[in-house]
Amino acid sequence: METLYKGKATAIAVAVDGSEPSWEAFGRAINMAKLLGLELDVLFVIQLKKMGYFAFIDRHLQEDKEAMAQAVFTEAARRAEKAGVTLHKHLLESEADPGTAIVDFLDKARGVKFLVIGSYGRGFRSRTILGSTTEKVIQEIARRVIPVPVLVVPAVRSEPSAAAAAS
Description:
CATH superfamily: HUPs
CATH class: Alpha Beta
Distance between the termini: 27 Å
Low-confidence stretches: 1-6, 159-167
Helix content: 40-55%
Number of helices: 5
Largest sheet: 5 strands, parallel
Number of strands: 5
CATH topology: Rossmann fold
CATH architecture: 3-Layer(aba) Sandwich
Mean pLDDT: 83
């Protein structure tokens, strides 16, 4: 993880998991960072759940998650460079849930002006309005009294489009 900020807010954080709603949130975060002259912290969480069968299965799953994170970071860097925004990549690992890892980052960073997050991500879309990670982040920020406003970007598209993949 890169240096965490102290004092004045210098960045906008955005949680991205590679899903279409998270890329919509990323686009909004890029626009905000550009307008406010702030840098962008991209957060990707790897959940370290042990499957418990064999060590090689756990290692294979971990490698798949790390490859996905690198793909997301590569695409995020491409989009940020195109927009002229400075980007910092943060690969977060958690044995708990992704929401806890995101809130832990915000608690330690204390220089994030906003958190931008999609209304739901890669998990099961069993909820109508908010996904479980987004809901957890909002509740935990309020519980810990972390002074970071959260912008929840509603998912506009339900399936990735060819135009979004090309942008």
